[in-house]
Specification:
Layout: H1 5-27, H2 31-36, E1 60-63, E2 71-73, E3 82-84, E4 87-89, E5 97-99, E6 106-113, E7 128-133, E8 137-142, E9 176-183, E10 186-188, E11 191-194, E12 197-202, E13 205-212, E14 234-235, E15 243-251
Antiparallel strand pairs: 1-15, 2-5, 3-4, 4-15, 5-14, 6-9, 6-15, 7-8, 7-14, 9-12, 10-11, 12-13
Length: 256
Amino acid sequence: MKLNRPFTALMLGLAASTMTCSAMADDKLTPEQQAAKTEVWEPVPAMVKAPEGQAPSDAVILFDGKDLSAWEALEGGKAQWKVNGDSFTVEPGTGDIKSKQSFCDIQLHVEWKTPTDVEGLESQQRNNSGIFLQQRYEIQVLDSYNNKTYPNGQAGSVYKQTIPLVNASHPPGEWQTYDIIYNAPRFEGKKLQTPGYVTVLHNGVLVQNHTEIQGKTEWIGKPSYEAHGCAPLQLQDHGNKVSFRNIWVREIKPLD
């Protein structure tokens, strides 16, 4: 294409003149007025109360220390795990449980504890459970205190996918915390558009840093994705009496 050189020169000159005038106009503004040009006043973030040691005011409470009304058995019906005071415990053999509510992008807080009796138990048999994001992607729950196992299967791992950055485990019998930021995968029809990502803090220590999830958790074989929408959280019955308490979720949504 042949360029109209006089026209191009004219347009470049006008652009340069506009930039010069803008700079000159800025010179006439006070520093406060210049700074105000890059201030963004809308949208205004909603107020959220976050008392120390309590769930944020906009959180969905999945266990309040009273009952399992927010949970159900994997195939439906009442969850059979046992509530003990302010916590609940896996009842081995009754199966996994899932939240009644489905979620996509979330901030998740979970506190968990493994039994003190570890005699004869090692590796993956030492008091094992798991937290499945959208019923598919497992963050491992395991007594990993002085317990040798494959690192992509220890506490804080994206199970069988990504090794935690460090081992932040407490001794058995002590309460531990997971704070999880989860960005769900995105699909267009059956095709993966964006993989899922997860950040995990174990007892306040970063162990997964915006880690790409490779697909659905598999015990045997490689992970892969299948299209899905929002889905429940799932807690695993691995045959051990692991306890949980103070579980809450905040749904991550863009500013309106």
